Amino acid sequence: MTQAPLLRVRGLHKRFGENEVLRGIDLEVMPGDRIAILGASGSGKSTLLRCLNFMEIPSSGRIELDGQLVGRELRRGQQVEVAYPEAELVGIRQRVGMVFQQFNLFPHMTTLGNVMEGLLTVRGMSRTQAQSQARRQLAAVGLAEKADEYPARLSGGQKQRVAIARALAMEPEILLFDEPTSALDPELVGEVLTVIRGLANEGRTMLLVTHEIGFAYHVANRVLFIAEGGIHEAGTPDEVLKHPRQERTRSFLARHNEFSF
Ligand SMILES: Nc1ncnc2c1ncn2[C@@H]1O[C@H](COP(=O)(O)OP(=O)(O)OP(=O)(O)O)[C@@H](O)[C@H]1O
Ligand SMILES: [Mg+2]
């Protein structure tokens, strides 16, 4: 039996004014896939992730989640466009969770409050339920004892683990990580990567933009190299990271040669 993709992207375009950042991305994400996304600065990696959870609305193309088109197709003469009702996107953003480079925690809320927020406002959970769910998630990232602390009093690594707990609390089907360790001091990178590796080992489906190439090699089952608005090279970690076929991929990797496999 062949499994159906959890996420199917067809002809995804995204432009900002004159700048066409994504020029036709086709991608299928199977359940349990761990996809590492590499590419030069400005190549559109963040834009791709942001389109996948509809923080950015695609300029054109189709995204299906678990076999269902996100949005509603509208026919305009020969053209087919997709409209994205905000109410639907609120639901999609729960199913496709995102973790950012800059954590994006609410500074005026405790750690527990940060993790509870979406459960209260989006899920409409009772405070008691939300609290116990949030405590469970904090414990899962090793931060049970920091529940009542404010973000300003946490290390970067701890903040990022709170952000991961917050994403997990919504029980997403897919997790998107956008350079989750790039803002961290080197000695704090490991604790965050350990949490992400744990999630990968649980079989969670994830897309991860990262410059940690050694980590990508060991954790990902597929690697995409983005350039010129498209997927320039894709394959297994061995294919793309050890034996890249495209010159561009090679020179990118040569500039990130500080990793060891
Ligand atoms: N909201 C926006 N409005 C206008 N232009 C944008 C917006 N977001 C991104 N861009 C442009 O889109 C291009 C791709 O940006 P993006 O942030 O996706 O790149 P990236 O691959 O994530 O880069 P980095 O590795 O530096 O994070 C850039 O030229 C950027 O200036
Ligand atoms: Mg980016």
What's the structural blueprint in terms of helices and strands?
Elements: E1 7-16, E2 19-29, E3 34-39, H1 45-52, E4 60-65, E5 68-69, E6 72-76, E7 79-83, H2 86-95, E8 96-99, H3 111-121, H4 127-140, H5 156-169, E9 174-178, H6 186-201, E10 205-209, H7 213-219, E11 222-227, E12 230-235, H8 237-242, H9 247-254
Parallel strand pairs: 3-10, 3-11, 8-9, 9-10
Antiparallel strand pairs: 1-2, 1-4, 4-5, 6-7, 11-12
Helix pairs in contact: 3-4, 3-5, 4-5, 5-6
Adenosine-5'-triphosphate is lined by residues 16, 19, 21, 39, 41-47.
Outline of this structure?
The chain is an alpha/beta fold and 261 residues long. It is built from nine helices and twelve strands. It has a domain at 7-106 and 174-254: P-loop containing nucleotide triphosphate hydrolases (Rossmann fold), CATH 3.40.50.300.
